[in-house]
Amino acid sequence: MHSMSLSPVAMQKLAHPDGEIATVKGISSFRTIMILSSFASTRLEEVALAAQKSSIHLWMQIYIFDNRTLTTTLIRRAEMSGFKGIVITADSPVDGTVTCDGKNQIFSVEGKLLANFDSFNLKYSSSAVFQDIVYLRRLTKLPIIIKGLLTAEDAIRAMLAGASAILVSNHGGRQIDGDQAAIEALPGVVNAVKKLFPLRDLYMDSGVRSGQDVFKAIALGAKMVFIGRPIIWGLALGGSKGVNNVMNILRNEFNETMLLSGASNVNEIKKDNVISKVSIWGVNSFGIPQQLIHEYEDILRGI
């Protein structure tokens, strides 16, 4: 599988008339993963059909809604359409205020572009807890990836509840202005999780703008790096060809950075390839948050 994959981005027809279908076509030559937003502007079944003859693996992103039937129905539709994973966005019990959305009058068209729902009367569950992962684990045999965690403590709780993998993310900085950067949070999460769950995967998105950024995230422990905005920029400028161009640019930048750093393949990328400062959030670049060490001292001593 490719080191770079696609983060969920809602309503892609706002960027290009062909929306998610153009994105699928643009990455069809790559062996990669596309996470489809539950707020896509194309029905998930149509996206699955478009990806059928490619090497793309589709994962379905969902929220835990107040109306659990909506969540369950999306999972069932994704299973029937051949999706390979379920991505739960865990960092949005409510919508953060995005000033530019109001300026761009996005709310005047939002409901018209939500292809996977019959109505726009959608409300996230503000009381969702880690126990909901246990419920979802019983609901589907597909891998469950939890997206939006930034602390080692939350990541461990998610793993204990049955998560297959963690996608370290701050929602592209779109929920809380000034939130911790995902790349800052990544090393602490990796260190803690890998000690307790060495076989489970960790991914990262948010703030990735170049192949060099992909390299840094992999060096700090991400198995795969997911990309959002750059793909949409390519989609807006050139449809499927624009998406393909962006993927090629990122791949070439990544390969160049890897070779110039003395690594001949992804497996040779090490944390020593990057120099990182101590985070203001109390996480040493290659350590575990001090608070977590205290809370999980007995566990950590025993491994």
TrEMBL record:
One of its GO terms (biological process) is fatty acid alpha-oxidation. InterPro entries: Aldolase_TIM, Alpha-hydoxy_acid_DH_FMN, FMN-dep_DH, FMN_HAD, FMN_hydac_DH_AS. The lineage of its organism: Eukaryota, Metazoa, Ecdysozoa, Arthropoda, Chelicerata. It comes from Larinioides sclopetarius. Keywords: Oxidoreductase. The keyword Oxidoreductase applies. The keyword Acetylation does not apply. It holds the Pfam family FMN_dh. Its cofactor is FMN. Residues 1-279 form the FMN hydroxy acid dehydrogenase domain. Belongs to the FMN-dependent alpha-hydroxy acid dehydrogenase family. It catalyses: 2-hydroxyoctanoate + O2 = 2-oxooctanoate + H2O2; a (2S)-2-hydroxycarboxylate + O2 = a 2-oxocarboxylate + H2O2. GO terms for molecular function: (S)-2-hydroxy-acid oxidase activity; FMN binding. GO terms for cellular component: peroxisomal matrix. This is FMN hydroxy acid dehydrogenase domain-containing protein.
